[in-house]
């Protein structure tokens, strides 16, 4: 990215322009490369983090995958935001594993959180996924 502009509209939405060049500083004129780049940007903007709740036998495990930037840094405060969302949902944590994995030529920071359902109060599955996603995205 050689240059970018960000616009906030009066209706609450936003737009941004990115000017991207090749490593040699020239424009990207190959239509296939342009389409691939646009597709990748759409995917990253649409779902910047992945959140899923899966069954592990009698237990439930929350999986959160966050892409690692090319600089090698992950998004700060991910674990804080996950625990805050679970606290707001009155859902306890039994154990956590955090690791980095290569998936499709991309490094991801993956949080595996085994939920504690010992108190008998069960939050619906989609409420947990939505609640965690909202806090991670800054919507709550």
Automatic annotation (TrEMBL):
Keyword check for Repeat: yes
Coiled coil: none
Top-level taxon of the source organism: Eukaryota
Domain spans labelled ACT: 60-138
This protein's UniProt keywords: Repeat
GO MF annotations in UniProt: amino acid binding
Classification via Pfam families: ACT_ACR9_3rd, ACT_ACR9_C
Family annotation (InterPro entries): ACR1-12 (IPR040217), ACT_ACR9/10_C (IPR056805)
Function of the molecule: Binds amino acids.
Protein name, entry field: ACT domain-containing protein ACR
Provenance organism: Corchorus capsularis
């Amino acid at each position: 990215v050689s240059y970018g502009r960000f616009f906030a509209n009066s209706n609450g939405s936003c737009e941004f322009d990115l000017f991207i060049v090749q490593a040699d500083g020239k424009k990207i004129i190959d239509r296939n490369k342009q389409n691939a780049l646009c597709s990748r940007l759409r995917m990253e903007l649409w779902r910047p983090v992945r959140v899923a709740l899966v069954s592990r036998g009698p237990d439930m495990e929350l999986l959160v995958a966050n892409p690692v930037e090319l600089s090698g840094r992950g998004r700060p405060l991910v674990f804080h935001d996950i625990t805050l969302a679970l606290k707001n949902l009155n859902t306890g944590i039994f154990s956590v594993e955090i690791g980095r994995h290569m998936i499709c030529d991309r490094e991801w920071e993956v949080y595996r959180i085994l939920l504690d359902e010992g108190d008998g109060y069960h939050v619906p599955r989609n409420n947990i996924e939505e609640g965690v996603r909202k806090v991670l995205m800054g919507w709550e």
